[in-house]
């Protein structure tokens, strides 16, 4: 058993300097550390039991303010020294004998992390018991407000908002070793900095010391990728195989010194043997540089030879592959046989493997470098600001300067003579404008009066329309009432009306042939003034002549001399009754005081 040491100093004044959140983090870390030390001691004394039950660990609870001040007895032990040092001096002796644990054990109370930690611990790596007691001495912390340390906000935002791995914070050499905060203080400072800048985070998944002045931290809700992709990667394509990779790297390093991570990319489907080189540029200044293209070849697109252009070529236009000349109006059929216009080889005319093209490029490079060195030509520097245009007096001399007479554009003489007419015109214009404004005022007033009269007329029209509608409704009501009263009086009238009877004359006549005696019959009808006529023996020509204003009904006879016809005036309504009896016709007359039936019958003598 460990003897009861000297009681620790009063920590109430020290912990009063922290907020509840900071005390929560400190107490959680201290309790986890004490429980972990108890675990390690149990494994030292009872290795067999720890091997048989590796998953039996004490549960970690969220500490409150009471549990923070009630530190377990194991944490209250002091090192064997003659006197107790002040609280602020104890921080100068850093505790380095504690074995490294995953950061999730310091800020996460999950059982899975404790189980993984228990598997990693080994008995051989444990320090002696006395050292184990000393290393769990109560750590002394310096409040964050005693030593202010600033962090770059862009780096912190990038760590929180992107799926990035752990970040490292390195304190500068100007900060003394005794003033470097612990990992818990760094975590508290980071969370406070995130809260002040309104950056929402849940928890820090890791915040441990990774060196004397370096701290490693990460965020819990960020998904960490397996590897960090190259942000500033470039690819040099189509490098010939005859150029060694080391030579290519040296040339790239000459141009971009901050180049790392070289890798070659080979493609098997390329027609000509070449490869690509991929690399990463560490310096942003060297990455954001203007592209300096290579020297361009001067070649002809008609004959595909180098050294001249198409406008100076005297040859006909030919195919790029086989160099066969094109014919107007004839579709070219290429044989897919490569023919170089420079050396006659089996490749394109401008291919880089052509020896003539290679020699031309080398000579061109030497000539351009020589011209740049001598100052014959000048290469424009990317980003260079061009000088503004400055015109000198002798740049554009006047033609025939002796004969040119300069005349000023604006003459100042005679201005006094123009002042008085201008003043008069201005005064007249002012008077005209005043008169026009008065006229406009009067016009506006008359328009307002007219508008008022129109509104009054509209109101009176609406009133008349309403009155007329009311009169119409009244007339309709009165008319219906009058009609009803007249009808009632007529129905209840006891005096019958006197009827006027007109005698109805009926003419009966034996025609004996309508075809020859029709005119005689017509004259007889109008003389007698009979609306009803019965004619017998009309024979077959009864329809040869019609009687005006009469309706005729005919029935045939037994022989050609028979036939009966009845004519009724059109002012009477007549209806024929169908019958199959020969020489007999029946007609009913309607519209009279009573219905009359006229029957016409003819009986011949034979």
Automatic annotation (TrEMBL):
Q: Where is this region: Disordered?
A: 88-116
User: Can you tell which superkingdom this protein's organism belongs to?
Assistant: Eukaryota
UniProt feature, compositional bias: Polar residues: 89-99
The protein's organism comes out as Rotaria magnacalcarata
Protein's UniProt name: Uncharacterized protein
